[in-house]
Write a structure and sequence with these properties.
- The protein is mainly beta.
- It has 3 helices and 7 strands, in the order E-H-E-E-E-E-E-H-E-H.
Length: about 170
């Protein structure tokens, strides 16, 4: 067979896709992996509809910090004073485009603006902007639910090869 399942002239079964397995990540490993990349996507509600924006981030003390711009959609994510923040999701990954191996993590939690001036100034230095736009500060995402998986090469021999010749 070739990649799409049609038989090969020599009768052999070939697959263009490597055998992979998906392994679930625990919370600590997932957050550690998110900290190894600088780009992710934040999912939030805008005008009662889901919205997604690519953003750069840092992970500090198990929390994800993203930069917000004065005129950007994320600057509107301000919760009333009596709630812990606005519910958002954050996704980051590193998947090799050729081998399709890598990982993906989704964090769901509450986002709230960083209000401490010194802390906000420090994040302004750590979170280098990708575009020249006025900065409104930073947004802190406190993870409640962290899920993730790693796509790994499956090195387990096929059942027929494990049994040996018949």
């Amino acid at each position: 067979m070739d990649q799409d399942g049609t038989p090969q002239a020599d009768g052999h079964v070939r697959s263009g896709t490597a055998v992979r397995r998906m392994r679930e990540l625990d919370r600590d490993e997932a957050l550690r992996l998110v900290a190894t990349v600088s780009l992710g996507r934040i999912v939030f509600t805008q005008h009662a509809l889901p919205a997604v924006r690519p953003v750069n981030h840092v992970v500090e003390d198990g929390e994800i910090i993203v930069r917000i711009h004065d005129d950007g959609a994320l600057a509107s994510l301000v919760a009333p004073a009596d709630v812990p923040g606005v519910v958002v999701a954050y996704e980051a990954d590193a998947i090799d485009p050729d081998t399709h191996l890598g990982w993906s993590v989704v964090v769901t939690g509450y986002a709230s603006p960083v209000t401490d001036t010194e802390e906000a100034d420090r994040y302004a230095v750590l979170l280098r902007p990708w575009v020249a736009r006025p900065t409104a500060g930073a947004l802190r995402i406190r993870p409640d639910l962290v899920t993730g998986f790693r796509l790994e090469a499956d090195t387990t021999p096929p059942a027929s090869a494990a049994r040996g010749p018949s």
